[in-house]
Input
Amino acid sequence: MCSVHDTVEFEKRGIPSTLFITQIFKNSAVSQFRNKGMDGHALIELPHPVSNLTPAQMHALTHEYVREMVRQLTT
Amino acid sequence: MKLEAHGIPTATICSTAFAGAARVQAAGRGFAALPIVEIPHPMHTASRSLVEGRAAEAAQSIAKALLEGAAARGALGEDILEDRIEIDADPVALEEFFFTHGWTDGLPVTPPTVASVAAMLAAAGRDPHETIGPIPPRMRVATIEKLAVNAVMAGCKPAYFPVVLAALDSVLDDNIRLYGIQTATNTSSALLIVNGPIVKELGLNARGNVFGQGNRANATIGRALQLILRNVGGDLPGETDMATHGHAGKFTFCIAENEDESPWEPLHVERGFKRGDSTVTAIGGSGPQNVFTYGCETGAEILDHFVGALTGLGHNNIIFPTGPLFVLSPEHAQTLARDGFDKQKIKQHLFEKARIPLTRFAARSITGLHHRRSRWFEIAGDPTHIGVADRINDINIVVAGGAGIHSQFVPTSFSYEPVTRLIRTKAGSAK
Output
């Protein structure tokens, strides 16, 4: 998936990165990180689906995961 | 041929590109000597004066055919008889044997041995000598055993065979118009949709990649039907199958409904069967068109995209009165259900909104639409547009597929309506 590819490319360029992925695509992301030589790369698992959430629900979801994103990018 | 059968002299006019196919098809229906008058190909781009010139040239041949009548009925296409052969068991030689005889769809097949065919027959619990048919386009009759041979060749497990038999039974129903699907230039194939407990029992895929590769049951059940139509029905590309392009579904075209993730009653229940019944539903379909609802959050926005996909020019549901099929992803179905749309409301919406103004068509196309979609102009009450279905319930909705905001618009063709058959398992009971 494009998001794994982009995360790997950022990391290769020395830019700390993480990946937001909905639950249903997690196994695929884990496998693709492994195939691209970044086995066990950090990611953040969101509930699926997000495509039909309202803006308020999206904001709530963002608040819930933003600290974990900062933690992954800074440690 | 029906006119000839009633003693009415006929002359069938074909362009040169199709004359060979016409003769093969006529022979298959028992009229090897059907009078066929050839005119130069192509016709549809010829000027009016050229058409008139060709008509004048053909008039004498037409008159001759009508006055002298069809010659005596030709021999019927030979029925497929039981036959056993012994061949070299070398794997490469075996594979080549089937290619050499033209008994494959272009991919290798599993050699049907006496034991593997017997296992297939045992799973169906049907008399091996029972005959099925006639199967178009050559209108051949075959034994259940011969069908089992093709199921083995396709790679089916024995447990799949009852589904193959139900699928064949469904496509042979007159409402499917299989002969048209097989022989036309259009890019059609019989799509199979499996419902009921048998989906899980056989491990049919109803989820991600449902139209794609990777599942033995979907791949080989659909392939078995196509091999039967080829090896028994005599459906051969370039000879009887005159498809301009064809599509990947002519190798295999079998999906299952994702009943677990659907908010609505499944297709077979909608069509009068019990939820615990296992069924296969057939309809003539082209390659699915993806509808990617990027950025849409509501049911109304999703439906706008469906309407957009339906109102482009050139797809089969403008020309054919069959009514389109939508294969909705579970996410689309659940968002639509959340926003108050059930199947009937979706159908109503598509019926009312997916209409194309006739001003977008050339005059000749409008004339053709009035002929081919005459029922629309008789009953829809909208003389300035063409809709994608003559009646609301000619639109069909199935839920299948995996995660993602995609659905499939399957343009349908030839079939008058879908045909659903119960899948009968070994005990003779219906499941």
